[in-house]
């Protein structure tokens, strides 16, 4: 999966001389949190966020009267509060790399740039949607979890068990089990109408299946 496949391309941008009050209106009206700031040729100059606008509202100017504050904000331009050193993505960047950048830098979005022009934006919300889709999350699917040893062939073995049972796997993901160097969690989702059949097929092959939260995972550790 790549950023270019999931980014929003119906961009709303502003110019550096856009009044801060106008930027606030755009964010509220369009129900968005980030506004790329561009020149007349779609080149990225900065980004202004709802956080930047809240900071402007909470500046020392807030000690002024309502009328004085309104006057000051009417004169204030986006270029005065925008972030100029902007982290960006490219359309060919992987989704996981974009997610890492957003997570590590505690930001909410990445403008997407190609050939020095802004072509889209990808947000933390977009990445969460991709994750949920990849996990196969839906009302008509059921979750199956197992703790397995980190060994070659384990995915093939689970897949073969489902194949023999005539069950299609909608999604599968593995990640390390915290506190155990050689054990992984294997989580998959299947159609709800075959969920119980899938559990039975796996247990018949010796897998210890977890279908709900348990505080003590010891009984589910592989032998």
Any overview of this molecule?
- The protein is an alpha+beta fold.
- The protein folds into two domains: 3-131, CBS-domain (Roll); 138-220, Alpha-Beta Plaits (2-Layer Sandwich).
- The chain contains eight helices and eight strands.
- The strands form three sheets. It has a four-stranded antiparallel beta sheet, covered by helices on one side. The protein has a two-stranded antiparallel sheet with strand order 1-2.
- Strand 6 and strand 7 (183-191) form a beta hairpin.
- The longest helix is centred in the N-terminal third of the chain and has 11 residues, at 20-30.
Helix count from the secondary structure assignment: 8
Rg result: 24 Å
Global morphology = elongated
- Highest CATH level, the class of the largest domain: Alpha Beta
Content-based structural category: alpha+beta
* CATH architecture label of the largest domain: Roll
Please report the total strand number as a whole number: 8
Q: Whole-number average pLDDT?
A: 90
Strand order of the largest sheet: 6-7-5-8
What's the helical proportion of residues?
25-40%
Quote the CATH topology of the largest domain. CBS-domain
InterPro entries: ACT-like_dom_sf, ACT_dom, CBS_dom, CBS_dom_sf, Diverse_CBS-Domain
Keywords: CBS domain
Domain ACT: 143-222
Protein name: Acetoin utilization protein AcuB
């Amino acid at each position: 999966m790549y950023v270019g496949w999931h980014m929003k391309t119906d961009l709303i941008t502003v110019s550096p001389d856009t009044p801060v009050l106008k930027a606030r209106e755009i964010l509220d009206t369009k129900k968005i949190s980030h506004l790329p700031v561009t020149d007349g040729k779609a080149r990225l100059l900065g980004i202004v966020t709802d956080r930047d606008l809240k900071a402007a509202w909470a500046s020392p100017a807030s000690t002024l009267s309502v009328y004085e504050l309104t006057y000051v904000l009417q004169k204030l331009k986006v270029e005065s509060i925008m972030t100029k050193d902007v982290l960006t993505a490219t359309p060919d960047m992987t989704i996981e790399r974009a997610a890492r950048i957003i997570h590590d830098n505690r930001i909410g979005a990445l403008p997407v740039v190609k050939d020095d022009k802004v072509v889209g934006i990808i947000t933390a919300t977009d990445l969460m949607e991709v994750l949920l889709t990849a996990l196969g999350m839906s009302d008509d699917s059921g979750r199956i979890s197992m703790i397995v040893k980190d060994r070659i062939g384990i995915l093939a073995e689970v897949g073969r068990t489902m194949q023999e049972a005539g069950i299609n796997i909608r999604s599968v993901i593995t990640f390390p089990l915290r506190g155990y160097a050689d054990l992984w969690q294997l989580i998959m989702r299947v159609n709800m109408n075959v969920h119980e059949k899938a559990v039975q097929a796996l247990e018949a092959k010796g897998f210890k299946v977890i279908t709900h939260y348990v505080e003590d995972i010891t009984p589910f550790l592989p032998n």
